[in-house]
Amino acid sequence: MTSGSAPDTAAQIAARQAQAELLEMLTFSPEDGRIWLHGKRMMMLDVSSFGALRDELMARLGPRGARSVLTRIGYASGISDADMIRQRWPTDFRNHAYIGSHLHRLEGITQIEPVRVNWDPDRGHFDAEYRWRHTIEDDVNIRSHGLGTEPACWMEAGYATGYVSRMCDQLILFREIECRSMGSQDCRVIAAPASAWDDIDEDLDHLGLPLPSRRGRARPDPRAAVEVSVPPAGDAPQLPAVQTGDRPIVGESAAVTAALHLLKRVAPTTATVLILGESGVGKELFARALHQLSRRARAPFIAVNCGAIPETLIEAELFGVERGAFTGASQSRPGRFERAVGGTLFLDEIATLSAVAQTRLLRVLQENEIERVGGTRVIPVDVRVVAATNTPLRRAVEDGRFREDLFFRLNVFPVELPPLRDRRDDIPLLVAHFLRRFNASHGKSVTRLTQRALQALLSFRYPGNVRQLEKIIERAVILADGDTADLAHILSSDESPDPSLLFLGLDGKLGPSRDGGRETGLAPHLDLDALAEALLERCEGGGTADLREVSAQLLALVAQKAVARSGGNVSAAARLLGLKRHQLEYRLSRS
């Protein structure tokens, strides 16, 4: 609020707050070509390319087929954005439902002007009318096909239907009554529950939802319809169908999906598998997944870290030992190969094996039999060997540290696991998974991260990969008070965000974040230098800086934001700021 102007309404304050918080959630990482919106990877597509895609769909599928494809894309996107809001504000997400219009505008789809909105979350009632301006689909449709007799904002309608349906927990259908592609100045859209429309068969068909029964014209369950089409992405990580006990493989990035695809292809065979990847990427986890997918799943899975066993003992550990074979061998005992008979033997850090152990391992792989250390009896073994290394074995062969014939015997089916920096799309899923695990083990209830903490996690280089992220989240759970972990809870002396990360300010310009540094916790859009320059320019123009008034306005703005983040709970906002309730109420009265 400026001096002499009318007080801002609650709706205006809420709108500014929504815009500011959304901008804080938007992150640009030019170095690796990623854009994030609250941990969800985004992409920029120019309008002409989208138009070409739409024209291609029209040519190949016809108008009806193209409409169905684009409507379903929009519907899935709307549900995904609603899940993101529900994850960001899990206890009062309905108070932030208005953010949908800001999200749509931020993502460059259209400008939404509400004409009327009647929403009663307690009764589950919703009906509304909107005007859509500057819609992308109208632009590209009119450019390619001119004016017609049918509405053309298919993806926008699908998005709005998905977003509002997810927020209301019932199917809310959006229909265009007027459209710019039909010659109207703007698009006029009506939204109402599915049960309020006379005929919804065509709408459901385009959305890909179950049609109502022809017998009795029974309506589908709106909640089930939303859930069946697109499962919620924000409530819990989406895990692949591979479980390894209480440590599942978490990830849906292309790199993880490709690795799992290779595992599923080789699992039914008897081929030796070599898993490659940096330290901490989860090589043993994927080896266990391979075992679970194989025909040997009910037999033992035995893991050996070759680098952790002294060179003088590694042969006895792998192949067993006969009584009296060496000093201290008071009784015979089987080795890891015998213990793994019928199952899988996982040899981690295979490159650290001694030359003698390499020779004996090669014979086992070729003949499927072993001799214990100090023994003369040949013991047949039916064991599948899965090896892993974080060292390039070809280089070790060239350097003479690893047998070439053993390398070829192990390298039958190599599977390379990506480092975490190449699968950043999975970081939000991994964070949610680790939060649940460490909340359970430490008796805490940390359910979310602040936006700046999540942005920092997305920008780390992670030399320790998933293992490093796991320990960061465990530390955050231990340090955090309440249900939210902040930047201070995840950073340590050897961890800092990537300074190349860029954020969008309220002025629409990209710039570096100040949240990543330790010197200040200010939001990226708060530019104190610009504020100081503006005050000095006012003074040079004959005005006064009135620092006392500027300070009061700044404190009032912080107070408003604290109340909004606390869901309107003034006492909670006061605790957030470290103030007494009456002190916060005084600052709010100055706004």
Break the fold down into its secondary structure elements and pairings:
Layout: H1 10-25, E1 26-29, E2 34-37, E3 40-42, H2 47-88, H3 99-106, E4 111-120, E5 125-133, H4 136-145, H5 154-168, E6 172-178, E7 187-193, H6 201-207, H7 222-229, H8 254-266, E8 273-276, H9 283-293, E9 301-305, H10 314-319, H11 336-339, E10 344-348, H12 355-367, E11 369-371, E12 378-380, E13 384-389, H13 393-398, H14 404-410, E14 413-416, H15 427-442, E15 448-449, H16 451-459, H17 465-479, E16 484-485, H18 487-490, E17 502-504, E18 510-512, H19 528-540, H20 547-565, H21 570-577, H22 581-589
Parallel strand pairs: 8-13, 8-14, 9-10, 10-13, 15-16
Antiparallel strand pairs: 1-2, 1-17, 2-3, 4-5, 5-7, 6-7, 11-12, 17-18
Helix pairs in contact: 1-3, 2-4, 2-5, 8-9, 15-17, 20-21, 20-22, 21-22
Task: Report what the structure shows.
This protein has 591 residues and is α/β, with parallel strands linked by helices. Helix content is 44%, strand content 14%. The protein has helices at residues 10-25, 47-88, 99-106, 136-145, 154-168, 201-207, 222-229, 254-266, 283-293, 314-319, 336-339, 355-367, 393-398, 404-410, 427-442, 451-459, 465-479, 487-490, 528-540, 547-565, 570-577, 581-589; strands spanning 26-29, 34-37, 40-42, 111-120, 125-133, 172-178, 187-193, 273-276, 301-305, 344-348, 369-371, 378-380, 384-389, 413-416, 448-449, 484-485, 502-504, 510-512. It has a five-stranded antiparallel β-sheet with strand order 3-2-1-17-18. A five-stranded parallel β-sheet has the order 9-10-13-8-14. It has a four-stranded antiparallel β-sheet with strand order 4-5-7-6, with helices on one face. Helix 15 packs across helix 17. The chain is globular.
